[in-house]
Specification:
Number of helices: 16
Distance between the termini: 53 Å
Strand content: 15-25%
Helix content: 25-40%
Structural class: alpha+beta
Strand order of the largest sheet: 9-10-11-2-12-22-13
Largest sheet: 7 strands, mixed
Radius of gyration: 23 Å
Oligomer: single chain
Length: about 550
Amino acid sequence: MPLRRFSRPRAVVVVTATVALLLAACSPGGGAPQEASGEPVSGGTLTYASGDAEPSCLDPHVGGNYPQALIATQYLESLVSLDESGEVIPWLATEWQESDDGLSWEFTLREDVEFTDGTPFDAEAVAANIAHVQDPATASSTGYLALAKIENVVAVDDHLVRLELTTPDSALLESLSQIWVAMESPRALERSQEENCAAPVGTGPFVVDEWERQDSVTLVRNDGYSSPPADVPADAGGAGLPYLESIVWRFIPDSASRYAALQSGEVQVIDNAQPDTIRSAETSDTIKELDAPRPGASNRIELNSGKAPFDDERVREAFIRSVNVDDGIEGLFFGTAERSYSPLSGVEPLGLGEPDLFAVDIDAAATLLDEAGWAERDADGYRVKDGERLTLDFPVSTNQSIPAEQSLFEQIQADAKTVGFEVTLHPLDLSSWYGALAENDYDLVSAPYTKVGPDVLRILYHSASIEPAPSGYFANLAQVDDPALDDLLTRASATSDPDDRKSLYEQAQRIILEGYYILPLYDQQNHFLYSTTVQGLRAMPTVSTPTFTEAWLTS
């Protein structure tokens, strides 16, 4: 059969209003399967309550945010996945082979899978999905950046597809495990974006049935689901999965209301559990916790080095030396979060932390500001230079930052004032927050980003990421522009040698940390609370989102 070649679109990238779709993008770290009791029971409706912002599109190709990942995990699947140790395992692809020069990969595809609209899953479907993610009109960010090195897709035959790259990509398999590049029906992708956003069509265990905006999404069981053998226990049997008849995915932004709904039995699972409720749940006989910290980057504050005052490294270091993050985390998170000193999540094996760089030293901070020309103070105690106050704008996404984190930011604000920084916190909804970033209207920002593996460092800190993706979002919010760092990240991305990769990423992290471009806080949190009536719940190691494929209700 002749080869069918699909080329990456080369249209001009345009900044669009869909920047508001982006939230953080995802690697290993998913919670282990919860110990189940009794035999699985088929049927029933599980109600899930999310505290994240309701997605404006249920297709994770569009934009690429974490609320999309949470729900899309239930109806979409990726080419490969990860096991609990972080090793890549088959999923929709059964095996793969990298060429000697690293410029092409061939994937053998499963032959027993079709999309829920009856469209076959085959090599042309893979090509259509990669083209959809890379098409600027899709306005992707997370997926677009993950697949940036794929230049051509060749359907060798119906179930063998070759990906041809511009340069070797040691993170390709990690990237392909993510929900933001999951497989969707090519026939469905031919619909308008509005139609596809409302009801993406995948191969997963559930199907989008109805979306009542500002309230809930109803998912129903895919009775034709074909379980990946690598994931499903042999004694479970593909025909019996999923067990649940349906899932009602509700959006309840208020944390107290979510927890009350869980306590009353109105819902069975909640996300974004707050530290106090997690501790409260420990004494409950009817509520359990699933802790699934996200891979990729740590939760951190980015310092915008692309403009004054943080274009001066002395001012960046002075700010970091002036704030006591340790006490804030200890006092506000009740032991549910551990301080990070690394750009990478604690679940990333190649993460490097340097605690000494973040020790509080008020005297050193004051000296640094004096040396940087901010020696005078105004009547309110803030530093001034040339008549301008040392003011830092800090937009805060109320959809992404839990209340405990927002309180931490207020403590940081108070600490920084002691050495003369005026930190102005701006609580914003998600759309306004992305607008502030697009306008470069920030000095500090906390922007979680989830991507499997250490290649997230290239996405976040290579100077090329100062340019926006088609969605309008740019990932390098610290606006680091360092040729030496670019070189390290480029070489790390191109080598598959584990020792070389480790060394290069370690050097890159030292530049990021020692340049005081970021203030690490703690690992990205994924705390789920669930009723003991839920059995078989676990989190996907790829994105640390819950999966209900093997879950059932006892009553």
